[in-house]
Amino acid sequence: MNRSLKEIKTPSLILELGRVRSNAARIKNVAHSNKTRLRPHIKTHKCIQVARIQTEGFDGAITVSTLAEARAFAANGFSDITYAVPIEPGKFSTASEIFRSGVKLNLLTDDLATAKALDEAAGTAGTPFDVFVKIDCGTHRVGVEPDSEMAIMIPRFISDAKNINFAGILTHAGHSYDAKTVEEIKAVARHERDVMVEHAAKLRGMGIEVPTVSIGSTPTMNHIDHLEGIDEIRPGNYIFFDNFQATLGSCSFEDTALTVLSAVIHRDITHRKIVIDAGGIAMSKDRGPVGLDPTCGYGRVLDLEGNDTGMRLTSLSQEHGVITDEDDGWLNKLKVGDRLRILANHSCMTAAQHTHYNVLENGEIVDRWEIHRGW
After folding, report:
1. In this structure, are 151 and 222 located in the same domain?
2. What is the pLDDT of residue 98?
């Protein structure tokens, strides 16, 4: 039976289905028009139903950030999965277990010693993984610098290895989130693409076959001019977007699909504040786009219909969120028990705090979709 937002317990996630479908269609069009494979990153939502919307019309390939995600999605029919975090020896056995279940599980490394250990372990386990080499295109989190010796040595070793296969090169322009303007995002997008195309050409010139060149963050894939030389894109956050992405210019606020439904639990006229039951555990404590909007707080406060109130979630403790109302407009309208919706700074982090989505369509909750968490 369909329910209204007033019937849903708080705090809870509200997922606007129409916006999810629209966001999925936008990136599908980018992939189709550039003739690239789409392998969306499902860490944003960790939800089977959302992944099916993302991959409809494609081959069902996905990207994950945990082996628990890989296991859950494999159990629900997804059989081509890239685990896009550098593998370490403590996870070899779990990866082998997933591989032996019939899943094409692609791994990632940026470390020569680990590649050698993985080759030996794969030989023992009988699990000939396809392995990407992670290239650092400017984020400086993980990956090898494209002009470094290891950017040649690791692909060459994997290509020549007996028990693992060289899948290609992979990168993520995470530094696109640090851009201040759309023009800066466009520059990062071009650099991400060009660095990888050039490095693939270098490896091929040395006789190393590069089956796949894989790139893609949400900001760069929403602003790329072309993807010539790229085989695969892996954006993730685009399916929901969030306050950060909208402030950054990756999307409009009308594209954001995920909010946290909360209830007013306290009003303080003297200090001009409203307290809600969505604290740090419900929202996460991601500081969001403070470089672009110093007043962003922990999210934008919307009314029950999803309209921006102009207020921000200014502070969080474990189960309490504080909203400051400087002009007393909403403070005078609201009473304890009234509902508000919070557009989170980072939808991926916020979604991971919850067990399920309440799916909103045409103003009513029409379904409940599970979130598969864990490592």
Report:
1. yes
2. 98
The predicted pLDDT at position 178 comes to 86
Q: Are residues 99 and 175 in the same domain?
A: yes
Write down the pTM of the prediction: 0.96
| R_g of the chain, CA atoms, integer Å | 22
Whether residue 246 is contained in a domain is answered as no
Please state, rounded to an integer, the average pLDDT across all residues of the chain: 96
∠ CA 313-44-141, nearest 5°, is: 95
Question: Does residue 161 share a domain with residue 40?
Answer: yes
In a domain, 109, yes or no: yes
CA nearest to 300, candidates 272, 357, 259: 259
CB-CB contact of 67 with 98 (8 Å): yes
Q: Angle at the Cα of 100 (from 96 to 101), degrees rounded to 5?
A: 120
Check which CATH number belongs to the domain holding 115 and give it: 3.20.20.10
How many domains are there within the chain? 2
Q: Which of 315, 368, 365, 370 is nearest to 339 (CA)?
A: 365
C-alpha to C-alpha distance for 116 and 122, rounded to whole angstroms? 10
